[in-house]
Amino acid sequence: HVQLVESGGRVVQPEESLNLSCAASGFVFNTYGMKWSRQAPGKELEWVATIDARGSTTYYPPRLEGRFTISRDNAKNILYLQMHDLKIEDTAMYYCVGGGSLFAPYWGQGTQVTVS
Which of 68, 72, 76, 108 has the most CB atoms lying inside 10 A of its own CB? Predict the structure, then answer.
């Protein structure tokens, strides 16, 4: 069955860096674009980054570009998110999203990042 398992979230101080990982299984990982999304308490879900199936093209919302980097290792079926210069407002649950269909992708259980 399909699994997306995020890891790496923890409590960090402002301006620190943090790397998240997402281990994918149960689908052909290297044929799907993947993305990271996040949701802070009381706020709407927010798109963080997208990467194409081959890992050659990435997309970010303007407010995060330059601080966040999405990447993938298709040999290991792992998606990554590098975050630099973290801010209080980056505190959120971070989700790995992909596979499935365009309107019904798979979601991981999330990993909590707290900046304080």
Answer: 72
Average pLDDT over the chain, rounded to an integer: 96
Q: CA angle, corner 62, sides to 32 and 30, nearest 5?
A: 10
What distance in Å separates the CA atoms of residue 95 and residue 79, rounded to the nearest whole number? 11
Q: Residue 10's closest CA among 94, 98, 99, 84?
A: 94
In sign, the C-alpha dihedral spanning 11, 17, 23, 28 is: positive
Backbone angles phi, psi at 31, to 5 degrees: -110, 0
Structure-token match 């989700």, residue found: 95
pLDDT more than 90, % of the chain:
92
What are 35-61's pLDDT values in tens digits? 999 999 999 999 999 999 999 999 999
